[in-house]
Amino acid sequence: MTDPKRVHVDLGSRAYDILIGRGLLTEAGHLLLAMMPRRKTMIVTDENVARHHLATLEAALAAAGIDSSSVVLPAGETTKSFSSLETLCDSLLAAELERKDAVIALGGGVIGDLTGFASSIIRRGIGFVQIPTTLLAQVDSSVGGKTGINTRHGKNLIGSFYQPSLVLADLELLHTLPLRERAAGYAEVAKYGLLGDSEFFSWLETHGEAVIAGDHHAVLQAVETSCRAKAAIVVEDETETGRRALLNLGHTFAHALEAATGYSQLLLHGEAVAIGMVQAFRFSEKLGHCATGTANRVAAHLKHVGLPVDTKAIAKHLPPPARMAAIMRQDKKASGGRLTFILVHAIGAAFVAKNVDEDAVIEFLTQDLERQ
Ligand SMILES: NC(=O)c1ccc[n+]([C@@H]2O[C@H](COP(=O)([O-])OP(=O)(O)OC[C@H]3O[C@@H](n4cnc5c(N)ncnc54)[C@H](O)[C@@H]3O)[C@@H](O)[C@H]2O)c1
Ligand SMILES: [Zn+2]
Asked: In this model, does residue 333 exceed pLDDT 60?
């Protein structure tokens, strides 16, 4: 293990560190010792991650004298469900974990969100640690304490704010991640540049391909910058009453696209976010908030690294614009029938726009389809 980078999430009594580096998994036993006073834990993971990385973690814990058992859940979004929550809670209780113990979430956002939520309700809260294994989880879902599951009414509608006690982002784990998943996670990296840091976006325009290809220095820089950006926003607004909403740049459009494509492999979350961010820039241009040509620059970069930037490939799955706008209205970010969007003045300058007129959205979506 080379010395990891450390990002501190300064939330007072709920403060924690994110360690970012190589070889953290093999050192996990020593790194986690302080959180495991009874030398006992449970690892929660999915089938894909277990195949590649579970044995390494188990050996690392054993080497530090920590006794572990594991729960291996099916991979995929459907695991963020009531039934998996029940299975997981049963396992955690059967393992006799107590409040001072800590559970380990080893996986992507699905495992992190589910395990975090289970940890928040077991005995009214037991400790938990995140070892994110996707780029998306390392730069986004493992940081900030949003946990939850999906229901038939929509995604993430049941959950809690519950911070982990440590995040270990081991960049070596990304080597086994399929390229399409790496690109999807990259959309959330680009998001931090687009919403608040134009210099970072410019850096990504030069180094983005290296990040997706897995070049260590490029990935380290990208993950660290992203975690610092997210941590700063979370510290300012832990429960999303204001500024944290900026992290939803592109997400109102994205959620509607994901709903229309059934949260399937047709469109991964990060791919939907890439399209949604371009739409947010185009919509901002149309409303006169942002200089013409900005959206094209954003689209050119995301396309260059292999992300979709328009709805052409999924057009036949999309309902008409009025229906898409209605889906957006049902998204939890809508209030009082008016729509809330994250719009932009420029690259690196996002803002919350409340009271966006639904007709303007429909007109934009109609034009956006015609443009393609
Ligand atoms: N809590 C938050 O703040 C937050 C933020 C963003 C997204 N999310 C949630 O995160 C979820 C998406 O996360 P995700 O993109 O990580 O998806 P995921 O957890 O489903 O992982 C994607 C796929 O990659 C596989 N995988 C994971 N790590 C791997 C590795 N190292 N090697 C090989 N395969 C690996 C998984 O088995 C899965 O098939 C969504 O449910 C979303 O709602 C939460
Ligand atoms: Zn997202």
From this structure: no
DSSP string spanning 319-366?
PPHHHHHHHHHHSTT-BTTBEEEEEEEETTEEEEEEEE-HHHHHHHHH
Q: How many CA atoms lie within 13 A of 316 on its CB side?
A: 2
Residue 331 scores a pLDDT above 70: no
186 confidence band (pLDDT: 50, 70, 90): very high
Question: Regarding beta strands 349-356 and 339-346, do their DSSP bridges make them parallel or antiparallel, or are they unpaired?
Answer: antiparallel
pLDDT at 332 over 60: no
Q: Are 307 and 183 in contact (CB under 8 A)?
A: yes
Task: Select the more confidently predicted residue: 330 or 264.
Answer: 264
Which among 40, 29, 31 is positioned nearest to 4, based on CA atoms? 31
C-alpha 121 – ligand 2 centre gap (Å): 24
Ligand nearest to the CA of 115: 1
**Beta-carbon contacts of residue 177 (< 8 Å; ≥ 6 apart):** 133, 134, 135, 185
Residues having CB closer than 6 A to ligand 1 are 46, 48-49, 52, 75-77, 80, 107-111, 113, 133-134, 136-137, 140-141, 144, 146, 155-156, 173, 176-177, 181, 269
Q: Using alpha carbons, list the distances in angstroms from residue 356 to 122, 137, 194, 343.
A: 40, 31, 21, 10
Q: Which of 228, 244, 301, 333 is labelled catalytic?
A: 244
